[in-house]
Protein 1
Amino acid sequence: QVQLVESGGGLVQAGGSLRLSCAASGRTFSNYAMGWFRQAPGKERHSVAAISWSGSSTYYADSVKGRFTISRDNAKNTVYLQMNSLKPEDTAVYYCAADGNYARVVRGTVVSWGQGTQVTVSS
């Protein structure tokens, strides 16, 4: 289990970009798969992107594929979500997640969650 702190959220115009960061604490960070989830107002939380511990495998929800990129820097214990071509429907609280099992991160059944960071995209 690791502790996660998200940052980088904010208010942007449609078509703009943001990069979210998730700083992880814990000696086993490099062994954890990481992911990003989001929850829009009145909707359920769902997976946005995931990345294996090595970075060799990635997953993207269809709604963000081609626009978002997940990456990680294990030396900095940080995972990123680069969000380009943002749309109003991307507005949500974004959560970082971590688990030792990549499949659980994709599914959202994870051990550790961050507190979330708000992303608001204006139209």
Protein 2
Amino acid sequence: QVQLVESGGGLVQPGGSLRLSCAASEVVFSMGWYRQAPGKQRELVAAATRGGIKNYADSVKGRFTISRDNALYTVVLQMNSLKPEDTAVYYCNADDRSGRYWGQGTQVTVSS
């Protein structure tokens, strides 16, 4: 079973940056990040396939960048120009033929 370990959440001021990292126990087809704000559905933030195909939510395009290191089984989400509406619990996600896997979630709070 795929295991996911997240790091990098925290409190940041508007306009600031955070870097989220997720390490998997093995390489998988797709890795990425979802987020869920209070009272809202969980939504895709960004994801990348093993082959390098990436997609982003419209709300984060131009501000967030996702990258993968397949050799290290990791995915990194660099979040720049953060806005208060980015505040949410962020969950690492991995998908492969064995199923869908989730990290425990890390809180990102953007506030002055």
Protein 3
Amino acid sequence: QVQLVESGGGLVQAGGSLRLSCAASGRTFGTYAMGWFRQAPGKEREFAAAISRSAGYTKYSDPVKGRFTISRDNAKNTVYLQMNSLKPEDTAVYYCAASSGGLVNAFPQSYNYWGQGTQVTVSS
């Protein structure tokens, strides 16, 4: 019952920053836990960050911890991923996902709605 559209991807040099946005449709955005996943060419989709319904809890994968920050604005039906100190290995398509179950977790199987992705390319 929700549609997700990512934006904000692009080309950035190593050490730079980028902010991704995910705009959600529907009336019940505030009831979903939200996550960001990424997928590099030839690799499996992997977890990056997640945030609870009320933004009281966040979770990050080890590769992005300390560099990425997930946040949300429920009044705007939007979740963000602020990416700092970017590395070439961060290059991937980044996907926004929503979990109607509401629990923050790193498992893609737990998310039942997905955006179409936005490309992030980090050059060296």
Protein 4
Amino acid sequence: QVQLVESGGGLVQAGGSLRLSCAASGRSFSTYTMGWFRQAPGKEREFVAAIRWSSGDTYFADSVKGRFAISRDNAKNTVYLQMNSVKPEDTAVYYCAVDSKRGRLGPKIDWYDYWGQGTQVTVSS
């Protein structure tokens, strides 16, 4: 069993920055992949970024490359999404997720089997 709790969402001005956190607990995830997804009203959930816990390898959606960064803190069992140069199009509920089965690094929703509740990010124009 894995539990994920997101935090850090809120209202931010276009061009600004925001850092989201996802605290994980429940069992060891040294072989896991942790990812961030987002879902805007009327839109399908889409991949944002992922990090393989053991290696630190990362993968980003084209829409956020160069603007967002993903990292993890081993001591705190927490993964972060640093959002820079945010745009109104980034407005969505952001979810963290875990691939606990194979620790694959990639964008497919079906690879992830644990999900947090989500945190709202709103970017004003």
